[in-house]
Design a protein that fits this description.
It is built from 16 helices and 15 strands. The protein is an alpha/beta fold and about 400 residues long. The strands form three sheets. It has a seven-stranded mixed beta sheet with strand order 12-11-10-9-13-14-15. The chain has a four-stranded antiparallel beta sheet with strand order 2-3-1-4. It has a four-stranded antiparallel beta sheet with strand order 6-7-5-8.
Length: about 400
Amino acid sequence: MHNSSNTELILIRITGEDRPGLTASITEILAKYDTTILDIGQADIHNTLSLGILCKTEERRSGFVMKELLFKASELGVTIHFSPTSVEEYENWVNMQGKNRYILTLLGRKLSAKQISAVTHILAEQSMNIDAIKRLTGRMPLDEEKANIRACIEFSVRGTPKDRIGMQEQLMVLASKLEMDFSFQLDNMYRRMRRLICFDMDSTLIETEVIDELAIRAGVGEQVKEITERAMRGEIDFTESFRERVALLKGLDESVMKEIAESLPITEGVDRLMYVLKKYGYKIAILSGGFTYFGRYLQDKYGIDYVYANELEIVDGKLTGNYLGDVVDGKRKAELLRLIAQVEKVDIAQTIAVGDGANDLPMLGIAGLGIAFHAKPKVVANAKQSINTIGLDGVLYFLGFKDSYLDERGKL
């Protein structure tokens, strides 16, 4: 209980209704007796405060400290508890600091006790300890039918999973069974300092595959759609499928591209996501197996920094059925992500990639944070994080943004 210099370690816990100045008046008493604060933490749930302070004070003063704190607590109408702490317990706590910290983010249209219970059981089985729990989304309306509703909870977890891969698999099974998304990330400096985000375009930023839209106008819709789906599922080589599909577009008028660009169905959450990313200084890239024409249209709309996609050959205002340069396939997307990171002087661990198709897997694999978005089963199975339940602005929660950080434009 005591160490050699006659000091005492005391854990003080205060609970009750929160009010301004409460922490100030408690710490003022500690300061008066020259108390050292070794650890402090506070949480406020529904205006109910829970404040914990681990402090070191001289043994001869500890009685006075506790007496004054009791008087102050009674004056403020809060409850106070004191627990003596041994040096050994303190040393054990200090030694825990070296343990890995992870952030587990749960995301969905709504989160129930069932989902939280299932996830926390998995953490317990892996011998991982929850340090803190935070709600990132705004307060939930009681009317669950409201549009664009979403719920996100972030767990700060300490320890090393006994079986990281097994844990990931269990979480994936839960995610599909209980209609939620999750991300499990090492909580390090890079997680807090992401700087570059690369998006696939078709079926990610926009809710369509532009090549299918062009094919419908060219009267070859069904043929092209079938090839697209096989390529996205990873059944055929992307470059080969791309060549076949572009050839079928021969003779299509250039004006059709403008018409399609102006009515692109933008994915839910994109406006909010782009606004926030730009506001917080992220560099944004489109890396797409689609076409530069549409990538540039989105670039102008959102102020995107880089666009790499495929150039359709146009002669005399008509598509020739050929394309220019190398095809942006999965391998090329990963190379471009590395390249842009070098140009922007960003560590690869500070990058994010978001996509839905098999050709996105290489970039999702090398990015610091790879997120499969409403993706094909093969992609979800190979990605560490995925979002299937809400719009693309769900990415913000995986980056740790709270709704309350965002101003009105961010709350679109």
